[in-house]
Design brief:
The chain is 22% helix and 25% strand. It contains six helices and 13 strands. Helix 4 links the parallel strand 10 and strand 11. The longest helix has 11 residues. Belongs to the UPF0173 family.
């Protein structure tokens, strides 16, 4: 059965379609991470990176080294930069950009728009879909009305939304995003309380989401849910 685990900050582990997937895997410098990097040695099939800020690119390069069969999925320009800078083989890269689904051995992947900043290529969100379940990881983003299109096109069952404010949406803005996206089964807050700069009261988000008729799912770092 498919599972999702929050590793603190924006780092997510998804086990779905027989694959072990990491999104924005900041582990070593993540004060909330419940595991060490070696926990993922020779166990990861796919790493998704939404953008190149250090707290999202995280330990991608080292993880690829300790998982030689793992694939990297990100925007093409970011992939090209990482391939050139860190000598990652293109055999380990799934070329992509914002658009439609890409098939990865039974798991469908897509990149979406995000409103943020990035040095190499545009920031994105990510869609992971398999076993009849679709998950939307918004990456780092402010609120934008095209989230309605993401909801209409991909129809996510679960949405992972940043709520920490300052660099992304705050709880109030994220609650509006929930109305735009309309996740069918639940919405999980991420990218908050890692450091004081993004410290918020998650209960504010919970109250707002419930008042709009959606299901907030607050996880502790290391906690998993069955999807």
């Amino acid at each position: 059965m498919a599972q999702l685990r929050w590793l603190g900050h924006a780092a997510i582990q998804i086990q779905i379609g027989g694959k072990n997937i990491l999104i924005d895997p900041m582990i070593k410098d993540n004060p909330l991470s419940p595991v060490k990097l070696d926990y993922f040695k020779n166990s990861v099939d796919l790493i998704i990176v939404t953008h190149d800020h250090y707290d999202h690119l995280g330990d991608t390069i080292e993880l690829l080294k300790i998982n030689p069969k793992a694939k990297l999925y990100a925007t093409y320009d970011l992939e090209a930069y990482l391939a050139d800078t860190y000598k990652i083989s293109w055999e380990n890269i799934i070329p992509a950009n914002i658009g439609g689904y890409v098939e990865f051995d039974g798991v469908k992947l897509a990149l979406t728009k995000a409103v943020h900043s990035s040095t190499h290529s545009d920031p994105t969100g990510a869609i992971v879909s398999s076993e009849g379940i679709t998950i939307y990881h918004a990456g780092d983003t402010g609120l934008f009305e095209d989230m309605k299109i993401i909801g209409e096109v991909f129809k996510p069952d679960y949405a992972l939304l940043p709520i920490g404010g300052r660099f992304t949406m705050d709880p109030y803005q994220a609650s509006i995003a929930v109305e735009y996206i309309k996740p069918k089964k639940g919405v999980i807050p991420i990218h908050y309380n890692t450091w004081d700069l993004i410290k918020v009261n998650v209960n504010e988000f919970v109250t707002l989401v419930k008042s709009k008729g959606y299901n907030p799912i607050v996880l502790e770092p290391g906690q998993s849910i069955q999807l």
